[in-house]
Amino acid sequence: MSLGYYFLLPVIFSFLTPYFRKLGTSALRGSSVFLTFILFVQTLEYTGVSLPQISQFSVAPPIGIAFVLDNFSLLFLLIFTFSGFMVSLYMLWYFKANDNTNETRFYVFFNMLLAGSIGMILSCDIFNVYIFFEITGISSYALAAYNKDKLGLEAGIKYLIIGSIASIFIVFAIMLIYLQIGTVNIGLIAQRYSEIDPKIAVLIALMLFIGFGTKAELFPMNFWAPDIYQGSSSHVNGLFSAIVAKSYLFVFFHLFYLFGLNTKYTLLIMSLGAITFLVSEFTALNQKDIKRLFAYSTLGQLGILFMALASNSSDTISGALFHLASHSISKLLIFLVLGILISKFKSTKITIVGDFKSLFLSIVLIIGFLSILGIPPFSGFIGKILILKGFALSHNYIAIAFILLVSIVEAVYFFRLIALMLDKKRTKTSVPVGFVNYIVLSVLAILIVLFGVYPSLLTHYTDLATNALLQPHSYLQFALGVGL
Amino acid sequence: MLDFFNSNETIHFIITVGSMLLFTIGLYGIFTQKNLVKVLISFDIMESALFLFFIGLHYNFGLVAPIVDGSDKTFTNMVDPVPQAMILTTIVIGLAVLALGLSFGIEYFRLTGINDISKMNELRD
Questions:
Q1: B47:A168 CB<8 A
Q2: Which residues have CB under 8 Å from B3's CB, separation 6+?
Q3: Which of A154, A174, A287 sits opposite B120 (nearest CB)?
Q4: Does B45 touch chain A (CB under 8 A)?
Q5: Host domain of residue A344
Q6: What is the phi-psi region of residue A49: left when phi exceeds 0, alpha when psi lies from -120 to 50, beta otherwise?
Q7: Per-residue pLDDT at A275
Q8: CB contact, 8 Å: B116 with chain A?
Q9: For chain A, what is the mean pLDDT?
Q10: pLDDT value at residue A431
């Protein structure tokens, strides 16, 4: 299958959604499950193929446009297609148990979101990256507001305004690059980035930093994120946390290493990541809204990822990629369980985690909490320990002390939630889970435990991805179209 | 005397200064305006400034539009068509975002009667 289908199939399904709706609700929901399943299985097949792979459209690069899949993007592709598959299965239950008047609108933008975020990580043309950036952006604004309720629309408007500012800066950066080098191919830009006038190069780096940093929720441009998470539905938050934020993070660090910005700005990005981590974990302590609490928790974890991914050392980056995959799975699990609780109690107060009675939900929710917190034997522990090991090998003891100290703050609110959940004095209401949710949530929970017990299942891919990121020689060959 | 205006340097200088002024006006609008529609208009002003800047800097005197009509097979003396294609795409994207933003604004106004972005503060700590 050509890599182009990764973009084409979701777009075609997105445009066909109204027709599927005419065939009936089960056709509509089934089509989304079918699409994400195909994409996930196809991605699994790519794990056994020699990479990078290229699909060119009409003319060979660097003149034409192409999709390139290397080991670094493969890891993200696995996470995105898997999360998409899990969410589409979950939606089978969600729209049966809840009001489904806005169902068609959700599926249109859900498929479009997959198309945009997958296109963004595959494209090797910076202008196409911008187009996919906007496709992802527009579908996530629409997903935030798809219920057309007061809070959702407010979140949508805020997200749209912030997103437009970010996209203007990215267009500006692309224009400056084109004025200086006369190309938009990422391979050519990477080769000739050092030829750019140093003052303009700083300006370009700043604009790219503002544009992608805003969307990837890096301090000080992340003030908007908690509002968006609070206003949107819980399953949409799962998508934002597992797919959208990660795709912007991918582009941020892909360009960071390809353009050789890591030689100058490592310390800056690492300290901004550390501030993100510190500020969000402390703000999370006194949140009353459960979605907002986990928005701050997401920001904190992204802070660790920024610290570790910018660190220039292969051990730390490999650990960070492990942590990234583990965080995607755990946050998806938490947000999907919260979706079940919120649709039962019609409230987003923090106390709803103490009000439900369901052994299964309690177990998977506690697995998710402990994994984010980094308690063995769950995958979050391996992620954090690998990051700390990487920092230790590069003698960065300040970062180790910092992560460990701030993790104590994180432990405070997670154990407060667990204590609330186990509190026998609260009146508990039993919550119906739904057959499909037993499958989805247990698959996610089993994966968390499995990666915690056998980390080598995932470290194999993260090591390959780290090599692809730090030694992009073969990626550049393909992006430049050498030997095609 | 008017030949002064026919040089590439002058026209590029005017375009750069003018579009950056327009960009600043848009940026000022985003941070000072309260009405959602005015904020969205400010975005459009900023985007237009970028388009003018980019297209303008790729124009030199003596070049013609990049249209192949069969008479000229050498493709010399033509403006670079890539920036224009890029700008067309960006205009379409900008229009999509503007339409989505206005529709959000209309729906929100129907629900609450508010179009002032400083009063949209239900979501907070």
A1: yes
A2: none
A3: A154
A4: no
A5: 5-480
A6: beta
A7: 92
A8: no
A9: 90
A10: 86
CATH no., domain B2-61+75-117: 1.10.287.3510
Yes or no, beta carbons of B123 and A158 under 8 Å apart: yes
The token pair that represents A438 in the structure block: 């037993």
B111 contacts A150? CB cut-off 8 A: yes
**With an 8 Å Cβ cutoff, is A46 touching chain B?**
no
| pLDDT score of A483 | 66
Chain A contact set for B84 (CB, 8 A) = none
Q: Give, in order, the Cα–Cα distances in Å from A129 to each of A118, A122, A480, B101.
A: 10, 9, 16, 22
pLDDT range class, residue A294, cuts 50, 70, 90:
very high
pLDDT at A51: 80
Q: How many CB atoms lie within 10 A of CB A353?
A: 22
pLDDT digits (tens, 9 = 90+) for A216-251: 888 888 888 999 999 999 999 999 999 999 999 999
Which tokens belong to B20? 């950056």
Per the structure, how many domains does chain A have?
Answer: 1
Q: Which of B123, B124, B125 is the best substitution to test chain A (most A C-beta atoms within 10 A)? A: B123
In chain B, what residues touch A211 (CB-CB under 8 Å)?
A: none
Q: Which two tokens stand for residue A439?
A: 């499958």
A:B CB pairs within 8 Å: 95
Q: Which residues of A touch B120 (CB under 8 A)?
A: 154, 157-158
Q: What percent of chain A has pLDDT above 70?
A: 99
pLDDT at A142 over 70: yes
The verdict on a CB contact (< 8 Å) between A150 and B108 is yes
Query: In a 3-state reduction of DSSP, which class is residue B76?
Result: coil
pLDDT digits (tens, 9 = 90+) for A29-55: 999 999 999 999 999 998 888 888 888
ipTM computed for the complex: 0.91
Per cent of chain A over pLDDT 90 is 56
> What pLDDT, in 10s, does the model give residues A319-354?
999 999 999 999 999 999 999 999 888 888 888 888
Domain limits, chain B: 2-61+75-117
Q: Which of B83, B99, B122, B4 is nearest to B44 (CA)?
A: B99
Residues of B in contact with A151 (CB under 8 A): 122-123
Tell me which residue has tokens 């901004």: A272
Give A226-235 pLDDT, tens digit per residue: 999 999 999 9
